Every structure is written in structure tokens, then in C-alpha cells.
Amino acid sequence: MDLSLRRGLLFFCLWLLVACAPLPRNPSADNLAHMRTLSGVVAGQNVLAGELYMPGDVRVPVGSTLRLRPGTIVYVQPAEGTKIDPEYLSSATELLVRGTLRIEGTARRPVRFIPLSIPEEGEPAWAGITLYDSVGSRIEHAHIEHAETAILTIGSSPEIRGNQLRYNRYGIIAQRASSPLIADNVVEKGEGGIFCWLGSSPQLVGNRVADHVEEGIFVDVSSRPLLQGNQVTGNDLGLVLYDRKLAGDLSGVIGNREDLRLLNLDRGERP
Amino acid sequence: MSRLVLLALLLCCWPVAESRADTDYRGEQSLWQDAVWSGRVLVDGILTIPAGVTLEIRPGTEVRFTRRDTNGDGIGENEMFIQGVLKVLGTAEQPVRFTSAEADPIPGDWGAINMMVTEEANLLEHCLVEYGYRGFHAHFASASLKNSVFTRNLRGLQFQESTVVMDGCLVENNFNGMQFRNSEVRLSATRVLDNHWGIRCVYSELTMRDCQVTGNLVNGVNLRDSNLDAETLLVAGNRKGIYLQRSHGILQKSRIRDNSEHGILLEDSDVVVVGNLIVGNGRAGVRWQNSLGRLRDNLLAGNGEYALVNEGEGTVDARSNWWGTTEATALATAIRDGDDIAGRGLVDAGQPLTVPPSPPSATLQ
Fold this sequence. Notes:
The complex is a heterodimer of chains A (271) and B (365).
Chain A: H1 3-20, H2 29-34, E1 36-37, E2 40-41, E3 45-48, E4 51-54, E5 58-60, E6 65-68, E7 73-76, E8 94-97, E9 100-104, E10 111-115, E11 128-132, E12 138-140, E13 142-145, E14 149-154, E15 159-161, E16 164-166, E17 170-175, E18 181-183, E19 186-188, E20 192-197, E21 203-205, E22 208-210, E23 215-219, E24 226-228, E25 231-233, E26 237-241, E27 258-262
Parallel strand pairs in A: 1-4, 2-5, 3-6, 4-7, 5-8, 6-9, 7-10, 8-11, 9-12, 10-13, 11-14, 12-15, 13-16, 14-17, 15-18, 16-19, 17-20, 18-21, 19-22, 20-23, 21-24, 22-25, 23-26, 26-27
Chain B: H1 2-13, E1 17-19, E2 23-30, E3 35-37, E4 40-49, E5 54-57, E6 62-65, E7 79-82, E8 85-89, E9 96-100, E10 113-116, E11 122-125, E12 127-130, E13 134-139, E14 142-146, E15 149-151, E16 155-160, E17 163-167, E18 170-172, E19 176-181, E20 184-188, E21 191-193, E22 199-202, E23 205-209, E24 212-214, E25 219-224, E26 227-231, E27 234-236, E28 240-245, E29 248-252, E30 255-257, E31 262-267, E32 270-274, E33 277-279, E34 284-289, E35 292-296, E36 299-301, E37 306-310, E38 316-317, H2 328-334, E39 335-336, E40 347-348
Parallel strand pairs in B: 1-3, 2-4, 3-5, 4-6, 4-7, 5-8, 6-9, 7-10, 8-11, 9-12, 10-13, 11-14, 12-15, 13-16, 14-17, 15-18, 16-19, 17-20, 18-21, 19-22, 20-23, 21-24, 22-25, 23-26, 24-27, 25-28, 26-29, 27-30, 28-31, 29-32, 30-33, 31-34, 32-35, 33-36, 34-37, 37-39, 38-40
């Protein structure tokens, strides 16, 4: 058997192992009661692993770090009601990081965020992860589903690599002076994939952005991302932007209802 | 001698305690009689103004709050708790300042100007409120806020079950701007700038005139189960401009422009949108989801992906608007509805205007 065939078989076996690994099921109330709780203000240097229960909002304050080790599972309790405390941004359950977040999943042992219930009619179950003026954050090999925004960066420039973000309303949003490195992620099956808004300049490299009801990648007039080697396919609009020069190589933007939508600044205020 | 007796009597009977300079309140304290503040006042604890007591604060006064965080949640707890009456009488030349006493202040250093079940109308005029958790907080209260600035708070203002009138105020650069529930709020000539949430309310009546809501990173104006009566607004440069959920109202003669996501987003609402300029919004000028009402005489052109998206099953009445074109194919491109996606309702864009309507007043630009 030649080397390339052996290597192929090895990769296939590894893939089979990962693909066939049992997905975690929702735990019982009794199990949840015995889990470590992730809730409220998580101050200091915290390294967590195993199964965690997130019954409500979590805030990592400035100067604090939260690390989630490979294989960690976070069971997220969706919030009821419309209340937002002043220090949070959403009425849904959210993980708001003003310090540092390190999600240290691996391809074989991802970190999973699992909502304990999924609302009907496609409403998000939780808000997702927000990095706000966060320094030194890294999110690797996380699986995030059914969030309003899986990962939202505001004034933050984390590394977001190798994640699987599915069934979220928005996959990733970079806003206000954010320059995250967004690489090798799979962002699929939401309303929209990756959004660059309000003066952001992320690097989008080697991502697969697929099967969204609306946009794959959207760049507003004030944002200047770097787009390189992304596969954008199966979306309603593949790539939407104002400045054609930002689109770069479009060879991976294929199979969308409309691959490229160039917007213009003509206000149409005159006939 | 009789003069001295009279003076002594006057001093004894003087009903108001006046504090002129460097007055400190430490721990939990109450004002037991009417008081007038001027100069510098330090609140190093929780100061209660009980029912029946009026606190008047004179021009130029600086009220400072120390930071006390007993539960380690990063939020200061010292504040003013008002059940009586508060009258803050700053002037343009000598505003009254509510601020942190810390050397390196941060939002949330202190609690709030906390109005709780106050017995009559409160007044704050020419104030600066900064570094609070909720800068101004009213619960079962009524208040008039004039020409005041709320900035660098975690939330600029919050009301529940209250009636609040704001005129000429600035709510700028707070983590969240203002939020209220079960309240009646009237805003005029007020600017809400560069917060995350600009204005958010539930179960409320909101009237807005000549207001500016710009640069907010989440939503400019968001109502849920509420009523909006809005005229001559400038809503620009937010992520979403105006977002109504299960709400009613009218929006007219306003400029809704250059918001990154949607200019106007309606969900399960009933709204009349008349005579507005809706341009330059990123994803769509108007996104209409299972809502009633109508769009009429608007300038709806130059928006990003679409001028109007109908996400519901019913028809949207969007007759008599200016779309930047009267050419049928171009008009169809600007509208996304049941002609594009099976199961969605149509948009009736009949009788399109052939010239753009006069834009609303530009006084806020």
C-alpha cells in the first residue's frame, strides 16, 4: 500500500472516530443540579473543564480570564422575559467578556455550547458570546448553535479559529474597531453568516460560509475587512459590499443565488 | 437687644438646612428636613430623601459618590434614594454635576439618582450625570429633565411605571442609553448618541419630537409591546435604526439614514410610516415582518440590498413612495417579496411618485 493511500486511510479512520463520537444529550434536572455552575460575575483567573451549567448571564470583568479546556460542555439555560441589566446587552442569556476568554477546544475535543431548549419558529435560544473591549481572547474549536450571534466582537480583536457555528441568527459580527482574525471556521445555516459593521476590519481567511437564508458575508460602508480564500456558497446573497476592491479573489464565492452584490452610495434623492 | 432676639428666633425657626461646601454624608443617612445644597457634597453611603422632604440643589453644585462594592460584582452601590422631592436647579453657566469621587472613575462607580415612589414632580435642569450604574432611575415617579447630560454611565436612564419628560437632553456614550418599562415618556430636542442600546422600552408610550438618535451599536430605537408617536427625528449610523416589535404608532417627517443593518424593522406591529427620508441603510431601508399599517410619501431610495423587504404573508401597502426610479424592473429589484420567495406576501408599490418628495426638515443634521 503506498504512502498516500495509507495516509488517506488514516485520515478517514480519524474522521470516522470524530464523526461517530456520541453527541451529548441534554442532562436531567438532577444532573444539572450537580454540575459546576457558570453564572454571574466570573472574576479572577478561572480554568474550567467538564460539564458546566450556565443558568443565566455570565460576565468576565476587565482583568479577569476564563479558560475552557478541551471537551468542555456548557449547557445554556435560555432566559425568560425581556429584562436586561444595565451591564449586559441582551435580554437572552449571554456570555459577556470584558476581560479575556480562551476557548481551548481541539478538532477532536471541541468545546460545546448547548442550549437546554430550542424555541420554536427559529428564534434564538440564547444571545451567544460577546467580546467587549476584550484583550487577548481566543476562541478555538467551539461548537455554538441557536444563538442570536454566535460570536460578537466590539472593540476586540480575538483569534476565532476552527469553530463550527450553526443555526445561529448571525454567525459572527465584528463591530466598532474590531480586527479579529476569523480563520478556518464553518459558519452555516443561519439568517446570515459574517457581518462587518460600524468600522471593523477583520481578517476572514479560509472560512466556509454556507447555506444562509440571507447573506453569507456582509460588509458595511465603514468597514475594511481582508477577505482571503473563503468558500461562500449556498447563501441567498454570497458576498455583499460597497467597495469591489475589498472582495479580492472571488473564486470561492460560488453557488449562491447571487454571488456578489455590490451596493452603491447613490441616495436616489433626485429623479 | 430686640434685634438679637429676632435673629436668634429666625435662626431657630429656619426650616431649611443649607449646606454650602464640602458636606459629607457617610454610611446610611436620611435627610429629615428640607435641604438646600450648594458647593461640594460627598455621598459615601446611601442617602435617603424621605417622603415629605424636598432637596434643592443650587447651580454649580458638585455631588460626588465614592465607590463601594460589597458583593464584588464590579458595580458601586452608593447612591441617592429619593422618596420626597428633588429639585436640581443648574444653569447653563453653572450646571450641577453628579459624578464619581474616584481618582480614576469608571462607569458604574456609584448607583443612581434613584427616584422611588416620589410624591410629586421632580425637576432636573442643567445637570451632568456621569459614572453611575443607572445615572437616573425612576420607579413609580414623575420627573422633568431639561438640558441635562447623561454620559459614561452603564445605563444613562431607566424608568419603570413612571412619567418622564425630557427636553434638550443629551444621552451620550453610556454602555446603554435609556430603557423603560410601563412608562409614559416624552422626548423633545433630545439626542441619544453612541451608546449600545440607544432607546429601549417595553409596555410604554413614547413620544419623540426633533430628536437625534445616532451611532448606537445595537439599536437606535427599540419598542416592544409599546406605542410610538415620532416626528422629525434623525436616526442615523446605528446598527438598526428603528425596531418595533408588537408595537403601534406613527413615524413621520424623519430622516432614517445610513444605519448599517435596517433603517426600520417592524415585527408583528401596526405602524404608519409617512413622509420620511429612508436612505443609505445597509441591508434594507424597511424590513416588514407580519405587520400592518402603510408606507406613504416616503423617499425610499439608495438603500443597500433592498428598499423594502416583506417577510410576512400579507400584502404591504407601500403606494405612493419615491423609489429612486419608476422603471418597473428597477423597482422590482428594490423590493423583495412574494414575487421573489414563495409563501411571502406581495408589496403594493402602486402609484409610485415620479419626483422625490421634499425631504423632511434638516435642522437636526
